[in-house]
Design brief:
The complex is a heterodimer of chains A (354) and B (298). Chain A has 354 residues and is mostly helical. Chain A has helices spanning 3-6, 15-33, 40-65, 74-89, 94-116, 121-141, 161-188, 190-200, 202-207, 212-238, 243-246, 250-262, 267-284, 289-305, 309-318, 333-336, 344-349, and strands at 9-11, 151-152, 240-241, 328-330. Classes of the chains: A mainly alpha (354), B mainly alpha (298).
């Protein structure tokens, strides 16, 4: 038995994940040129999908990875749109305003995190809801917004309709790709190890020197920034800004639905959840109230009976990792041959989670 | 001004009513029920339905609705909370939030978007008032509401301290495992606590409907009021909830004086100020804002 073959191999990916990486690149490239072939309506729908993916990924980063369940994330969605309106009003290019707005939302969330992150579980959840309700009321006081009447991102109207549509599509695609890349990078790096340690046991993580609060704060600010961008992009697609629509708790309900169904705490799960939500909305969105009842009931059923979501269940059952962020220890085959462990793959991939 | 202060204090009784179920449930089971407000609205609709369809006075209707609410509480605990609480502290938040969405939209589906009120069914009580010295008029309903809150809080306090069942609920809230070792059936204690909490929610829903209007989506603001009153009242005792409700109502009254849209802003702002002070005062961050400490009621 040579030393080379008997020492365990540490892997950061699998054959499936290497194929997946290529597939992701191809998909993004295809999406980038897709507007050439899609109808105007389809381009708008795809833009909405990208925004849903951002929302799901950001809420998942906060709740699934940081253990911070918030029902007030609509505050950042609304603020993203509101700051974009404000910035465009003082003469900033509307497209630039979308991203400047996201940065401001991220900046605002930092002092907020100093305060809110000291609350726990349910208290944090409703505390964020109070923040969202208060922010909504304060935004209503702004004369520019005119209360619930709302206002519009008028400066976008100088661009031709089709150019505007495609530009927003690309901006949404680019934002989604960038945010997912940042999140993926975070999870694969040393922060990712800290995040997983905190998720598994916060007190134990703190005792071995993981910066718990700092890591959570990073996720909180990232989620605020991403959701702010999403709100600004949504404003760009719909032009009108009515505070009631943007500060609506339904946005958080959507985020929770997507992440619960997709698989809370898994990187791929949030994307899958957004896709599922997008399809359900496309097919049943017209059903009105029953559609919302269905969403709520599905969320309850998933949290009761399939808390790991679709992707979490797939991952557990098949050991499939398309976008692996963790480490895999693979024991050489000759060691485990006579062992009780059925196969090295199974023995080692089990507890690795994204 | 003194008139408004008195109105504010009496309104605080309503907030205490809606808050006490939330903080009671949290202190026993460590679960914040996000469907709390929606369930209060369910009770209000049930009373409205009985009154408008079968001409049952809302006060008599409570004799039917409150036991139903207790059963709902039992079912909620057995089928939803118990199961999701096993999955960690975060899952119940998601479950109850999903439940709130289902309830709100079911109500919308069933009763439509119109606002309803129980006021037409309680006769002159909705507008009658007593004149107090200094030409201060206090609504009879507001006084009844406040008195109900005081009686309910006092009754809960007595129940928790003086009865065996109350002691077993307190023991479970302290430490379910140890309570189990000394023969307390934690599962039973939790279920009874949930049923009691839902009865208080039913009462709160009745007053919600009598003192104004409600619609299918009125649950979310009620949840926020309940949470704010409970947090402002703090972890002292159940009476803290009454003080929290009064502070919240006074802050709202003050807010309304400052700005036409300041009613809700005043309440939320007061909540955040109290939160900020309490977080600053406790160096390490709070273990639980709503948790009743062991010296509750002793």
């Amino acid at each position: 038995m040579s030393t080379a073959s008997s020492s365990p191999v540490i892997e950061r990916g699998t054959a499936a994940s290497r194929i997946a990486a290529i597939a992701v690149a191809v998909i993004i490239a295809l999406l980038a040129i897709a507007p050439q072939f899609l109808s105007a309506g389809a381009v708008d729908r795809m833009t909405a999908l990208f925004i849903y993916v951002i929302l799901a990924a950001m809420w998942n980063a906060l709740a699934g990875l940081g253990g911070l369940v918030s029902v007030g994330q609509q505050v950042f969605f609304g603020l993203g749109a509101y700051f974009a309106i404000r910035l465009a009003d003082v003469g900033l290019n509307p497209f630039l305003a979308l991203f400047a707005s996201g940065i401001i939302v991220g900046a605002v969330s930092w002092p907020l995190s100093l305060f809110m992150l000291r609350l726990r579980n349910g208290e944090f959840a409703i505390g964020m809801w109070v923040i969202a309700a208060l922010t909504h009321l304060l935004v209503n006081l702004d004369r520019l917004v005119q209360g619930e009447t709302g206002t519009s991102l008028i400066s976008l109207n100088v661009y031709d309709g089709s150019i505007r549509r495609v530009t927003i599509y690309w901006l949404a695609l680019a934002s989604m790709t960038a945010l997912l890349t940042v999140l993926f990078g975070l999870l694969r790096g040393s922060t990712g190890a800290a995040i997983r340690a905190i998720r598994d046991n916060e007190d134990a993580a703190a005792s071995v020197g993981v910066r718990v609060t700092g890591t959570k704060r990073l996720l909180f600010v990232l989620a605020a920034f991403g959701i702010g961008i999403a709100g600004a992009l949504w404003l760009a697609t719909s032009i009108t800004f009515q505070p009631k629509t943007y500060f609506n708790v339904q946005w958080t309900a959507y985020m929770i639905f997507m992440v619960l169904v997709g698989g809370i705490g898994t990187f791929e799960g949030a994307i899958l959840g957004a896709l599922v939500f997008f399809l359900i909305e496309t097919w049943f969105g017209g059903a009105g109230v029953w559609y919302l009842i269905g969403l709520g009931a599905t969320a309850v059923l998933f949290s009761l009976f399939l808390p790991r979501g679709l992707w979490g269940t797939i991952e557990e059952r098949f050991g499939l990792h398309l976008l692996p962020v963790g480490y895999r220890v693979r024991l050489p085959a000759d060691i485990s041959d006579g062992d009780t462990t059925p196969s090295p793959q199974q023995a080692t991939t089990h507890r690795e989670k994204a | 001004m003194s008139n408004q202060i008195i109105q504010g204090i009496l309104l605080g009784g309503y907030y205490a009513l809606i808050a006490c179920g939330l903080s009671f449930m949290f202190s026993v089971m460590r679960i914040i029920n996000l469907a709390h407000g929606s369930l209060a609205v369910v009770a209000a609709y049930a009373l409205w339905f009985l009154a408008s369809r079968f001409h049952v006075s809302p006060f008599l209707g409570l004799l039917i609705v409150l036991p139903v609410m207790a059963v709902i509480g039992w079912a909620l605990q057995r089928f939803l909370l118990e199961r999701s609480a096993r999955g960690g502290a975060l899952l119940p938040i998601l479950t109850t939030f999903g439940l709130a969405i289902v309830i709100d939209n079911m109500l919308f589906e069933q009763f439509g978007a119109n606002t309803r009120s129980l006021a037409p069914y309680i006769g002159s009580l909705s507008y009658d008032s007593w004149e107090w010295p200094g030409s201060i008029y206090v609504g009879k309903l507001a006084v009844i509401m406040f008195a109900t809150a005081v009686i309910l809080l006092g009754g809960l306090q007595l129940f928790l301290t003086r009865t065996g069942l109350g002691r077993s609920i307190r023991a479970t809230s302290e430490d379910p495992d140890t309570a189990g070792l000394v023969g307390v059936d934690a599962r039973r204690a939790n279920t009874i606590a949930a049923a009691i909490a839902l009865v208080t929610v039913g009462l709160a829903g009745a007053f919600l409907g009598m003192r104004g209007t409600f619609d299918p989506y009125a649950g979310a603001p009620q949840l926020l009021f309940a949470f704010e009153a409970a947090v402002i009242g703090g972890a002292g005792s159940l009476w803290g909830t009454l003080i929290g409700g009064i502070v919240l109502a006074l802050a709202q009254t003050l807010g309304a004086q400052v700005h036409p849209q300041g009613f809700l802003i005043g309440g939320h702002a007061a909540f955040l100020v109290v939160l900020f002070v309490r977080l600053s005062a406790s160096g390490l961050g709070l273990r639980g804002l709503l948790r009743l400490p062991s010296r509750i009621a002793s």
